[in-house]
Every structure is written in structure tokens, then in C-alpha cells.
Amino acid sequence: MTPALPLANRICLVAGASRGVGRGVARALGDAGATVIVTGRSSEAGPHTDQRPETFEDAAREVEAAGGKGHPYRCDHTSEREVDGLVSWALRRFGRLDCVVDAVWGGNEGYDGERYPDGSAYGTPFWRRPAARLGQSLEAGVYAQLLLARAVAPAMVQMRAGLIVTISFDTAAGYLGDVFYDLAKAATNRLSFAMAQELAPFGVTALGLSPGHVLTERVRDAGLAADTTETPLYAGRAVAALAADPEVARHAGQVPHVADLARLYGFTDRDGSQPGRYIINERKGGGDVAQG
User: Which is the CATH superfamily of the domain at 11-181+214-265?
Assistant: First the structure.
């Protein structure tokens, strides 16, 4: 391991890396020299979610171009069978998983920057929203995150080491402006906290991560780029810094902001800047704030 490649001997898995924050995380881990298993549902050989053009194979190639080793793997993270199969394959292939990043989030599928497929907008009062939207947000969020964590935990516990990072959004500052988004992120953050309590005695760290308003592909194509604060690589560099920190357990159970970690660890966004914390303006709405 060298200062230029601090993760050269690490085996990482990034779930939900076809696009958005997950793709930025995979790229940053590649920059740091890691071997990165890149998962998603949008494949060159099959259907794409939301008819988006990005694929997890593309993301794996970006890892390779950055200097890491990329391994694409198709997985529907709401399927327990597929998640268990993914983790079994990874452990057979590499023997261990040092860092697992869960960027799975399907709560905004079909969102065009103004409306969801059911006709409601971000922030529409809850009594005017179809209840099924909440179920979709929870299934494509906290349920999928729990499936992956419970699949990787036994190997990490046996190894008495490991890092689980869940991409979320900090809810401590107040309401996020949309009842379904707020509930999904609050549940995700509580899951990170609870997992940290149970994993800490075994030397495994679990935490959340709160990006700002990220310039994802979906946000760009919706014409909302001017409202964003940072690129997906900013969150990716936060994950790389956490994975390289021998004292990462100090963050266990927390949901640190990418902006705060940038100042702690000294990394920047793609353009060399260090964007500050992003606070959702309830009047403006958050839309696809964190992921992709």
C-alpha cells in the first residue's frame, strides 16, 4: 500500500453503482486502487431501469480507467436470493469484503424533475399522495439496505473487521420536505445506528453518509444542474477516506455530512472545491437529492 493508492489491497462492493452517487463512489475507490465489485440492475445485456442509458458495466470500466480493478455484477437488491448470491460469489472469488457501500435507492424512479409517475410532486401533502409510493421508497431503500448488510455481516464478524457505509441524507436538522423521502431516510439512518451497536463488539463499523444536492445524471437531464452543490465524486472521496482511516470506528452509527468529512480528511470535489453542507429548502423541494 502506498500513499497514492491507500486502498490497493482492499476488496470493496458498491451496490447501486450504475449511476448517481454509487457510480461516483466506485470511481473514487478505483482512484484509491481498490478492487471494486460494481452492482446494479441496468445492464448492457438486459433492461435498464427508468430507460436510463447508464449501466453497471460502464461503471466497472470507469473503476479500471481510474486505476482500480472493476468487477461488474447484476443484482436486484430488493431480492434476498439475488443479494445472497452476490455476496456468496464475492466471498468465493475474493475471500473477504473489506468495505461495502450501499447506494441503492429506487424511490425516485420515474421522477422527471417535477412529477412522479402517479402525478404527485416532491412535497405534495401526504394526504394527496398514493400510499403505494411509501412502500416503494421503503422497499428500494431500507429493506434493500438491510438485505445487503445482513448478507455481508457474518463474514465481517468472522473477520472481526469491515466497514458498511449506507448512502442516505441527514434528518437531524429537520423535515426533508417530503413525507415519503423523509421517512425513508430516517429509517435508513436508524438502521445504520442499530447495526453499529450490534457490530461494534466484533470490530465492524456501520455508518451512514449524507451528501448534498448531487449532480447525478438524472438531475442533469431534468435541467436541475444549476441547483446542485457537488458531483458524485465528492461523496466517493468521502467513502475512500473513511475506508482508509484506521480509526473509522469513531464515526460508527453516525450520519456524517460529506462536507464535514472533506474538511476532516482534506479531500475536494472534482473541481478542487470543498462545497459546504446542503440544507433542503422545503419551499423548493429536494427531489433527487442524494442518489441517482
Answer: NAD(P)-binding Rossmann-like Domain (3.40.50.720)
Is residue 154 within 8 Å of residue 202, measured between CB atoms? no
| CB of 184 closer than 8 Å to CB of 143 | no
> What span, in angstroms and rounded, lies between the C-alpha atoms of 147 and 143?
6
Q: Give the CA diameter of the chain.
A: 55
Among 170, 177, 107, 168, which Cα is nearest to 135's?
107
Neighbours of 134 (CB within 10 A): 17
For residues 159 and 96, is the Cβ–Cβ distance under 8 A? yes
Tens digit of pLDDT for each residue in 114-127? 788 888 888 999 99
pLDDT in tens, 7-42: 999 999 999 999 899 999 999 999 999 999 999 987
Phi, psi angles (nearest 5°) of residue 101: -115, 125
Per-residue pLDDT band for 136 (boundaries 50, 70, 90) equals: confident
C-alpha cell at 223: 435541467
Q: Are strands 35-40 and 162-167 parallel, antiparallel or unpaired?
A: unpaired
**3-state DSSP of the chain:** CECCECCCCCEEEEECCCCHHHHHHHHHHHHCCCEEEEEECCCCCCCCHHHCCCCHHHHHHHHHHHCCEEEEEECCCCCHHHHHHHHHHHHHHHCCCCEEEECCCCCCCCCCCCCCCCCCCCCCCHHHCCCHHHHHHHHHHHHHHHHHHHHHHHHHHHHCCEEEEEECCCCCCCCCCCHHHHHHHHHHHHHHHHHHHHHHHHCEEEEEEECCCECCHHHHHCCCHHHCCECHHHHHHHHHHHHHCCCHHHHCCCCCEHHHHHHHHCCCCCCCCCCCCCCCCCCCCCCCCCCC
